[in-house]
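Exercise: predict the fold of this chain.
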Amino acid sequence: MQVFNEIGPLRQFLRHIRSQQQTIGFVPTMGAIHEGHLNLVRAAKTQNQVVVASIYVNPAQFNNLSDLEKYPRTLEKDISLFTAAGCDVLFYPDNQEMYGEPSKIKFDFGSLDKILEGVFRPGHFSGVALVVSKLFNIVTPDRAYFGQKDFQQFKIISQLVDELKFDLQLICIPTTREPDGLAMSSRNLRLNADDRKKALVLVQSLRYANDEIRKKTDFKKIRTEIQKRCTDLNVKLEYFELADRKNLSLLDTVKDNDQAILLMAAYAGEVRLIDNVFVE
């Protein structure tokens, strides 16, 4: 695997790749690589001749400076895992390379970035859109791969690609989970043993709600039960919502033809986690 820290040499290398009519799959990450990231690389490998991954902890998408400072950084391990998974190229820039001067550009996605994560992390998706736009312009991939766990982010990036006419295909890969069901996340590394057990309330709540929705249970009653479960475990619930999978407009009920998704965010100890499941 070739590692690039600078934009110019990476662009030159990728121009050579494209001159040979090879397709490029791109997996953007913030590092602390786990099996979920590796599944994105493997998916990209099956559909492209060359797979490029990036590791960049983007300061523009953090609302909390402490969260940015505590974000896990495991570069040597990440490089080893990416290499074993068949990744061909790693882009690992620093802040000077990606931003130089502080950016003045802001993105607004209408209602899509004002709900769910947008309520608790104002400006987060503008920062995501900014860095993803930069990465897409640098790598110019044929396909880019994202995990379902960050589904609202995927919808934001879908709108970005559509409106700015990026010439690429976005692909969403199902969430990779631990054997006990916890969604894999780089933030899981920060959980102590007690909070790791408490964190299971997220996936358990989502699965419970999915079952109850199939039974036509009123969603307000479901949400009340989820709130109680979290409170009993001293887990701070930020939101638990039912939404339309197409545009994330919030729902109170699911009709027969609806494609819906359940989404939640909560703190297990000091660690903020998110998860979701499609209503089936």
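Check your answer against the key: The chain is about 40% helix and 20% strand.
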